[in-house]
Amino acid sequence: MDLTVDHVPFAFGDLESITEEFVRLGLEPEYGGVHGNGVTHMSVLGFDDRSYVELIAEREGKKGEDHDFWPEHIRADAGPAAWCCRVPDVREECKRTLERGYAVHGPLSGSREREDGTLVEWEMAEFGSGADERVPFPFVIADRTPLSYRVEPAASVSGGPLEGIGQVVLGVDPNRLEDVFRAFRDCYGIPTPIRDSPAGFGTVASVPGQPVAFAAPDGDGWLADRLERFPGSPCSCLLATEDLEAVREVYPLGEPLEWPEGQVAFFDSDVLGRRLGVLERQS
Q1: Which of 98, 124, 150 is the last residue of a domain?
Q2: For residues 136 and 233, is the Cβ–Cβ distance under 8 A?
Q3: Which terminal CB of the chain, N or C, has fewer other CB atoms within 10 Å?
Q4: Could you report the per-residue pLDDT of 46-98, keeping only the tens digit for each?
Q5: Is residue 155 in some structural domain?
Q6: Both 20 and 81 in a single domain?
Q7: 70: which DSSP letter?
Q8: Are 258 and 168 in contact (CB under 8 A)?
Q9: What are phi and psi for residue 217, nearest 5 degrees?
Q10: Glyoxalase-like domain location, by residue (predicted)?
């Protein structure tokens, strides 16, 4: 099964302030409305391939209330909280995953209402790995209403060198890295990852032809701290480009790092750190 990234939720305590940071970086998301839970709301940074970064936070006056959209991540300004893949049929994906022996939570219904009154509806499911649900599988989504209701390319990125979400980097305990590989191979048929040791990440294992990589820290640091607090979630979201230098002419990026399949440069942001970058994969 090919993994098609639909979106990556970026969780922050205040939607206005994180939106301002994205705008400062030249990435202007569009307000997407209030979720059906009434507690969270979001903005969408949509790309030409219809993948998107979702900025999600709790609404003023609703902060601290119960909901299922990554409340711990939101309240800690954690950034990437999960990752989502688009599938034709959520029920079929649930069946396929159950047949492989993995836990399934769903199908579930979701919705949000845009400012123009349009109701956006979808079906989704979440997956675990038996008793240990820290294997960072994606959740899946299928639209009930047209995809265009949920995402349209943002003017700030449409037609430019940023193509969409190129790779989701999953933080993994180094002692469990091989187990996670086996789980992904069993469930998604991934090939053997290519490994390297980019500065600040420890071991990175990138999956050829698939939008996923695994990062295991080799000691103390930001990634080890993040894994201790948020196991089973992404640590970074990398946008795709065919020309990293062209991106650097438009957006503020740091110096490139060698990555297993190419080069990565992270946005120059104290707020985001190494949680949002750009990947140029070797052809």
Answers
A1: 150
A2: yes
A3: C
A4: 999 999 999 999 999 999 999 999 999 999 999 999 999 999 999 999 999 99
A5: no
A6: yes
A7: -
A8: no
A9: -65, 150
A10: 5-146
Average pLDDT (261-267) is 97
The whole-angstrom separation of Cα 125 and Cα 93 is 9
Residue 206 maps to a domain: yes
Which distant-in-sequence residues (6+ apart) come within 8 Å of 17 by Cβ? none
Query: Which H helix or E strand runs over 226?
Result: helix 222-229
- Quote the pTM value: 0.95
Measured distance CA(261)–CA(281) in Å, rounded = 5
Range of the domain at 19: 5-150
Which of 49, 81, 74, 76 has the alpha carbon at shortest distance from 59?
74
**Hunting for tokens 């079906």 — which residue is that?**
123
What sign does the CA torsion over 12, 13, 14, 17 have? negative
Q: Which two tokens stand for residue 12?
A: 């922050």
Residues 176 and 252 in one domain: yes
